[in-house]
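ping. complex inputs:
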Amino acid sequence: MSEMTYIGKSVPKVDAREKVTGQVIYAAEVHLPNMLYGKIVRCWEHSHARVTHLDLSEAAKVPGVVKVLGPGDVTRKLYNTGVLDLMVPEDMGKHLLGDIEDQRIFTDHVRHQGDAICGIIAESEEIAEQAARKVIALYEPLPVYLTAAESSQPGAFQFDERKPGNMAFQLPEQMFPNNAYGWGDVDAEMATADLIIEDTFYVPKVKQCQLEPHAYVAFYDQSGRLNCWTSTQMPKCVHNKLARLFELPISRVNLVSTTIGGGFGGRLGMVFEPETCAMAMAVPGHPVKVQSAREEDWVASESRHPGKYRLKMGFKNDGTPVAADAHFTSDAGAYFSHSSGVPFTAGSWLTGMYKYNAVRYKGDCYYTNQAPSGAFRGYGNPQTNFVLEQIVDQACLKLNIDPVEWRKRWHKQVGDDGWCIGVPYSSCSLDECLDRGAEAIGWKEKRARYATQSGTKRRGIGVSVMNHTSGAMPMLLEHTTCTVKMNEDASAVITIACSDLGQGSHTVLKQIAAETLGMPMEEIHLLVNMDAAGFDIGSHASRTTYVGGGAVLKACEDVKRQLIGRASTRLGIPVEELEIRDRHVVSKNKPRRPEGAIEDAADHLRNNVWGVGASMSIKEICNVGVYHFVNPMNGEANGIPGQIQGYASYFPSHNSPPFGACFAEVEVDIETGQVQVLELVMAHDIGRAINPKAVAGQLVGGSHQALGMALTEEIHYNAKGLCLTNSFTDYKMFGPLDMPKITTILVENPDPVAPYGLKSVGEAGPVNPVGATANAISNALGIMFTEAPITPEKILLAIAAQGLA
Amino acid sequence: MKNRLITLSVNGRNYRLNVEVNRTLLQALRDDLKLVDVKYGCGSGECGGCSVLVEGRECINSCLTLAVEMEGRNITTIGGMMRKGELHPIQQAFIDEGAIQCGFCTPGMVMKTASILAKNPCPSEDEIRRGLEGNICRCTGYENIVRAVQTASRVMHESDIQAAGGAGP
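pong. complex structure:
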């Protein structure tokens, strides 16, 4: 590929100026005439109960209350906030995976603290809140189950008759005999092992903690359209789901995608859109705003799947991983949501990582009375990383093999089966990631130095590798539609439904468009409008740059084809002899502009210096296509008519998985149990970085979430199932002082099947710092920790019980 | 609830407000004055999304401050940082250093930065990190925000610090 103008350049985010001046519109900033305010009334005192009596009469009497809505006043249709049902064929989703709809807008069966029981619509937020306090709800408490182990007991209360034993999901027998996937004969291979390492781990329930609390405006207008302003990361899926829930054609639902104040999977599907829209449907002609409180996010929106993760691995003395046998039993929480997603996918990252002779993965989950589990950046990968990478390090320790060397020897390579069995890896630069990362952190030297330590502060260094994906094909639908409209002055409008969670997807999509069209980014507008844009599955599975970018690339190539086609007709030169240079269609045979003539090259071309009679400006082609006049004197038209529009309905042919190596160095205070992370080095196999600064930003930002999962973050419940950590004080995330020095290394070897060779990065950051930090602690203390987060309390208890190595 | 009439200056403009005495500054700014560049992130002083600058120097959580306490005070929000259509050097530094992802913490972070630099024009990295505690960002890992504060500190002059909040101490 010749030198590029925009690809590989760290251009500033296209929305940075609006954001830094406070002018972007998040949903909470939407203000419409005649707007009313909705309050979702939740059950705060029980995590499992039946509503035996609901009296809204006192609430309705509060001056300024417009309407009160109980379960019977809104649609009773069931729905599923997740979007997996739109990503797999119905016969697979419903019949094989057992996807079900089990949520109602307002319920009389509270299944988790914060379940919505009714709604208030009032003239102000304060009045709505005041009225909410007047709602009289009586409950019959039901038994509370906080873990899969409890709810799977015989005789436990059955959450859903369609799910016997409260098992929301297991890998389906019809697809996977014995409810497991993998390859080879695990039992026979395990029998040949010289060393077997086996343990059961616990991975915590952690929260996305996007800074923007969920807020919406919905408006059932006089034309009979339902409008919904939302910061969802999956606008087209939510568009479709709202249309289905309220039984409207999609064209009568207007979904407005507002600026997204962080997502991380927390907005992967519907959140409180159903409640908000139901309220708006109850007061036609009045917009209704729902601003949820931060506390509601903790109790009523989804989190990462917690649970027990057993892994048994067998090794030969030379390190050969003969077998891996894994079983992840997770807590689904109160509703089905992503129950068939995360427990299924967590194993993909396991099978996709190493060349085991045989591997078997079982994944299942059970209903509990916690807030529902769902999507969180990494989608099962951080859980697997914590488990797999620690077991590997234990084996390396026992076999006296360097953990970096073991990983280089046994990780999967190009051509090996990818995370999705049957789809071979198209590229892999993990060796280079490991080599460059090890060098950057001083792996060999520190590993040797930390082998013998004394004193109260012990240092350790650890490594962890990961694989992920760029889009979820072929497991899930991957499709993005894009149109590129060329205006009469040759500026362009790209219409697409891809959302930007803040990662900069709109910036990189414009970079790809500008590069492909050979025009300045400033002359391209990216229009995100759900009425105008065609389909896009949404921002998940690290797909937007890869699949959305692929759609932009194809649509821009369509524009170029049309431009060259028209120039060919006008110039009488075959299309294969033409190309686009300096915003002109020119003959390939004509000399390129000389060095140093960049600025006025277009003028030269216009003057036919570089191609006499063999050039047409793109502006001329676009202009004539729109302003197609017929000369009244001779009846001749002035060119080829028709406004140029490029189009792509793009289904990628691959998922170009990225790899990464993370190195962590920690210092553990053995008197207090405090862990200080001193340094992280994250080397990432990006294929090609479209915007290197944005890529690094994804890695560093993601690591913040990984370090929290490894060391400090966990949602706690009391025995009644009431959340104890529903604030940023009680739920400890890393602050600016806690973050370590971080070095990012972008390894760029373009992927052969990807648009511009790019691979994803969005979900890399939160994954392997989890395993690397755990391994570094284990290196420091000689103790492996099986429960995350590895808190000072756990460290002190372990030191007391096991002693230091 | 009793009401009280207050006057306050926001971004150089004077306002007279008749507010309930328990109304927070955040409600007064966002709901009454429609200055929605100030963000509601938690309502309990934990995230810093609602940070505003008082007298060009002190950064406060407007969700924890009563509007009536601001009688006669000069308040600056991110909407008041630009001068003559030009970005403030702190704003420019946030763009240049890639310190903005979802942008929801940005208004508070920029005001916190203005406060840090007003009190200490050349802070060390540790002082910056300590100063940013109380303002949560879930996107960036703070790295590029720290760099933005350092960059702003390098390019800013005394006049910029004053411009961030009017008169200064």
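The CA atoms of residues 21 and 36 of chain B lie 21 Å apart.
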